[in-house]
Amino acid sequence: MQRKVRYLESLAGYSYYVIHTTEVVDQFYDPFKILEIDRTASPAEIKKKHPDKVSDDLKDEANEKFIQISKAYQALTDEDIRKNWEEYGNPDGQQSIALPAWVVSQENGFKVLFLYGILMAVFMPYKIGQWWSKSKKYTKMKVYRKSAKTFYHLIEDVMIPGDIIEAISGASEFETLITPDHEELKELMSDLQRFADKNGYYYELSRKFTNAIAVKVHTLIYAHIFRVEVPEKFHEEQQKVLEQSIKFLPTMIKIAMAKGHHESLLSMISVSQMIIQALPNPTISFWQLPFLTHDLSLTISGAKGGLDIPKFVSLPKETKQTLLKDLKSEERKEVMEALKSFPVIKKVNVKYTTLGEDNVYSGSVITAVVQLIMDENAPEETVSFDDVTEALPGIDDETPSGRLKSFLTNDAKDESVYCPFYKKEKSSCWWLFLTIQNRTICDPVVLYNVGKSKTVKVQFYLNIPPGKYPIKVVLKNDSYAGLDFEKEFPMTVVAEPESPDRDHFDDMSEDEKDKIKLF
Predict the structure, then answer these.
(1) Residue 128, number of CB atoms within 10 A of its CB
(2) Mean pLDDT within 236-253
(3) Which of 126, 250, 415, 435 has its CA 20 to 30 A from that of 479?
(4) Alpha carbon 266 to chain centroid, angstroms
């Protein structure tokens, strides 16, 4: 409050200074002044000031004023023009801007003034206040600040998907999107509990949020991921809840990143998969495919010592047909067609180096080049560090562009996600993590438009002694379950050579250090 008072006092003082020190230029048109004659001058004296009668030694000087002098002469010699000047202060007559006749009409003067007063005294302050209120209400990521605070307090080091869904149900946005119908949901909640008990899934009512709206949001989300039909009157609200829940996840991920909660961050991406594909758990990934029942999906997952979608795709055609024998021929064809849209990672290549060197040196900035290959026929090109120049979009505009770099090796674009239970069209993206002992060593990289292959460069700093370190590369798709990739790519760190020419982290500027994630 004191700051606002000081600001207003300063503004008032500055306004006073400007008003009393600014020279006012008189814009009143005065032909007598231009012709440099007295106001009592006779017609004969005025005619002596005709532009053609200016002396030769003054003609050069008068050139710039010729038009003004001519106009002034006319204003005093032409009766009509002089009359205009005497009545309106201008030889051209009454001056006004191009406004409708009713605005400048004298009869409507009071009405126009009244409308102007309403505009300036009511409408403008209202709109400014509305903008200010909105800016205070929302974060940069278009989430209520109240909801963001709720997420911040609830996000912990280790959270399962159920904890994430519970946190989402407490968001303030739902207060204006959802009507409280707690009593009508009791039967639906009983159906959810039966499904969870029968199949061994987690489900319990929220203990943190017990108000009617939060309970309804929680129930509608679980009805979606359990694929339990809801009453028709709830269909529209359920879709709103699902779309809003997906919008919350980037904010929750950002908070988890800031707190360093890697396990919770992975759970948030799993919740995204569960909502997009309507899955009770990401492990039942075959339930994403058409015509596969819950039980058949579990059967295929347990076949041959454990199958996931990437392994299933690589099986011989005859083996796939055998596993899908319970389906009709046309249904099997549709399953195989749907699988073509699943972005399966075929191979990942990783290379570590100190920029400009062939090795990784202790106490230096480390560069990891990660190449994703989605198509077995895509060429595995040798990537030059100088080629990796295109800034990669992060989860928001505040991601430092110097931290993440990427480029496309082709012009392909990701197709829309196959998600029959999520009505809104969506494109998928990949989250890339580099970890040591389940701790991230740099900010996650978000990969869009992967196409057949994509290469990214990630820089980070590890102050570690020489040795061999098991860095794990983790890739999770935000829209498809069962496609996650995890593999250790060991990194060998050698002793720092005695070379004054090589850049050392301690010798970098503060701006350069800020662009690199420290561990």
Answers:
(1) 10
(2) 95
(3) 435
(4) 20
Contact (Cβ atoms closer than 8 angstroms) between residue 342 and residue 479: no
List the domain boundaries for the chain.
Answer: 106-137, 145-339, 347-518
| CB-count exposure of residue 60 (10 Å: 0-12, 13-18, 19+) | exposed
| Buried/exposed code over 468-479 (b: 16+ C-beta within 10 A; e: otherwise) | ebebbbbbbbbb
**pTM (global) more than 0.90:** no
For 145-339, CATH gives 1.10.3380.10
The tens digit of pLDDT for each residue in 427-447 reads 999 999 999 888 888 889 999
pLDDT (tens digit per residue) in 68-126:
777 777 777 777 777 777 777 677 666 656 566 666 666 666 676 777 777 777 767 76
Query: Which CATH number does the domain 347-518 belong to among 3.30.470.10, 2.60.40.150, 3.40.50.720, 1.10.490.10?
Result: 2.60.40.150
Whose CA is closest to 429, among 221, 297, 168, 249?
249
Compare 364 and 382 and report the one with higher pLDDT: 364
